[in-house]
């Protein structure tokens, strides 16, 4: 089947917008034609959508998300999570193994893949755990997990406390040509704290999570990555010190890549209004100085990509208050408008830069064939109305989660239609 998306604004190699007609055939991009080009005959077999000058980008890729299934279906399911993803313009999402059971066996990897197939929404790429039950005691069967379809190994949710365990994991992953993805957190430095060390903690008389609890693992793991040669990827970077260590490691050719979340680029601990669990996430919101360092790191390529760390929790769980509620906020449905409004609409970033960090950069780092509009690539596409302005309203989210600090924010640049393999999965007008 042939589809034509007419009059789409597309970013060219130089990052400028050009009007194009995107031709899709059998789920793949067939051609991206210039304005004057002859569009293939539009008989009955050709389906045409007029983008009317709206931006069309490769579908967003989110390499760090929590879909909660199996085990925590009250927070999210693979279906509700992947619907939320598609509504946020994401067409490929990589899900973390901190489910119940933990994704530490081939059976659980297969279950995740099967549920994702049934949901028929976004492409779901499962990570598997580094250690059994994410307890840090015994490595999982990397080879079997890879065969079942896992794309990398991580104990996200907790740090791997033992350096020896991490080194063994890296050796095994390297032998299988697989990446190790690390949630960097030294438990001995955190002990019970739930906000960053700094102004907010001081004002409320709270013990803080120091920056070193993250950066110590980053530094340790960079050395282990150097020793083992593995592709080491750092999760949700939030501190100046981590950015510095990753920058130095890259400069001397160590195989390290990293991600950063929208909330760590937009919010600091000084923005937290009070003891509200919708502002509680791991890593915590850091100081304005850390925020600036993360932005700089993203700009100079030290941080390779933006991920949401979409982490839905139920209203009841988040109502327990900041101390007792679980860490995490939802992310899919606010990520692009948030960053577009804050950084692109204000003239700080080029639109092409933001899009690259959400599409071709994650695809390059993880070797995916999507994230680009070149002929032959899957027709995973997102149409965005850059002028559309809406208030964030969690009641309208497709995710089961309502846990966001961005309620009521007026944002511009909302996704309005999403295609996966040439199929429209969601549109603002017609829903799912
Ligand atoms: N980021 C979070 O605050 N929470 C994540 C775990 C994690 O990403 O470490 C979760 O699973 O809820
Ligand atoms: Zn984490
Ligand atoms: Zn996470």
Automatic annotation (TrEMBL):
Pfam families: Amidohydro_3, DHOase
One Gene Ontology CC term in the entry: cytoplasm
Homology family: Belongs to the metallo-dependent hydrolases superfamily. DHOase family. Class I DHOase subfamily.
Protein name (record): Dihydroorotase
UniProt keywords, alphabetically: Hydrolase, Metal-binding, Pyrimidine biosynthesis, Zinc
EC number: 3.5.2.3
Catalytic activity: (S)-dihydroorotate + H2O = N-carbamoyl-L-aspartate + H(+)
Pathway: Pyrimidine metabolism; UMP biosynthesis via de novo pathway; (S)-dihydroorotate from bicarbonate: step 3/3
Cofactor binding, per record: Binds 2 Zn(2+) ions per subunit.
Domain Dihydroorotase catalytic residues, every copy: 53-241
Residue ranges of domain Amidohydrolase in the record: 349-424
InterPro entries the UniProt entry points to: Amidohydro_3, DHOase, DHOase/Allantoinase_Hydrolase, DHOase_cat, Dihydroorotase_CS, Metal-dep_hydrolase_composite, Metal_Hydrolase
NCBIfam families: PRK09357.1-2, pyrC_multi
Binding-site residues, Zn(2+) 1: 64, 66, 156, 309
Lineage: Bacteria, Bacillati, Bacillota, Bacilli, Bacillales
GO molecular function: allantoinase activity; dihydroorotase activity; zinc ion binding
Residues that bind substrate: 66-68, 98, 282, 313, 327-328
Any GO BP annotation: 'de novo' UMP biosynthetic process
Active site (UniProt): 309
Origin: domain of life: Bacteria
Enzyme superclass (EC): hydrolase
Known role: Catalyzes the reversible cyclization of carbamoyl aspartate to dihydroorotate.
Cofactor(s) annotated in UniProt: Zn(2+)
Residues that bind Zn(2+) 2: 156, 183, 236
């Amino acid at each position: 089947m042939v589809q034509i998306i007419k009059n789409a604004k597309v970013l060219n190699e130089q990052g400028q917008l050009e009007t194009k007609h995107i031709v899709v055939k059998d789920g793949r991009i067939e051609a991206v034609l210039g304005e004057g080009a002859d569009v293939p005959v539009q008989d009955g077999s050709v389906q045409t959508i007029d983008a009317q000058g709206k931006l069309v980008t490769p579908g967003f890729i989110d390499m760090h998300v929590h879909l909660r299934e199996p085990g925590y279906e009250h927070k999210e399911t693979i279906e509700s999570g992947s619907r939320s993803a598609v509504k946020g313009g994401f067409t490929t999402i990589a899900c973390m193994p901190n489910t119940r059971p933990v994704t530490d066996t081939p059976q659980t990897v297969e279950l995740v893949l099967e549920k994702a197939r049934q949901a028929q929404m976004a492409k779901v790429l499962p990570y598997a755990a580094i250690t059994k039950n994410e307890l840090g005691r015994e490595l999982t069967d990397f080879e079997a997990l890879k065969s079942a379809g896992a794309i990398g190994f991580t104990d996200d949710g907790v740090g791997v406390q033992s350096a020896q365990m991490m080194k063994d994991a890296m050796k095994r992953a390297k032998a299988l040509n697989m990446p190790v993805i690390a949630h960097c957190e030294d438990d001995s430095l955190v002990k019970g704290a739930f906000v960053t060390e700094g102004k907010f903690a001081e004002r409320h008389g709270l013990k803080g999570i120091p920056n070193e609890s993250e950066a110590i693992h980053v530094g340790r793991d960079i050395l282990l990555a150097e020793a083992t040669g593995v592709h080491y990827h750092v999760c949700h970077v939030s501190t100046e010190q981590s950015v510095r260590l990753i920058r130095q490691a890259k400069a001397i050719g160590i195989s390290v890549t990293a991600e950063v979340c929208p909330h760590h680029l937009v919010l600091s601990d000084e923005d937290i209004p009070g003891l509200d669990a919708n502002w509680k996430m791991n890593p915590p919101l850091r100081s304005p100085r850390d925020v600036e360092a993360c932005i700089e790191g993203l700009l100079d390529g030290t941080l390779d990509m933006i991920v949401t760390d979409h982490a839905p929790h139920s209203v009841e769980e988040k109502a327990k208050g900041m101390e007792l509620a679980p860490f995490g906020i939802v992310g899919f449905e606010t990520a692009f408008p948030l960053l577009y409004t804050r950084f692109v609409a204000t003239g700080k970033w080029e639109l092409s830069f933001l899009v690259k960090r959400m599409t071709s950069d994650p695809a390059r780092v993880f070797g995916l064939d999507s994230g680009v509009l070149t002929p032959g690539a899957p027709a995973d596409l997102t149409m965005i109305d850059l002028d559309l302005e809406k208030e964030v309203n969690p009641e309208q989210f497709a995710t089961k989660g309502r846990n966001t600090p961005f309620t009521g924010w007026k944002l511009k640049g909302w996704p309005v239609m999403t295609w996966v393999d040439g199929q429209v999965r969601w549109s603002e007008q017609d829903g799912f």
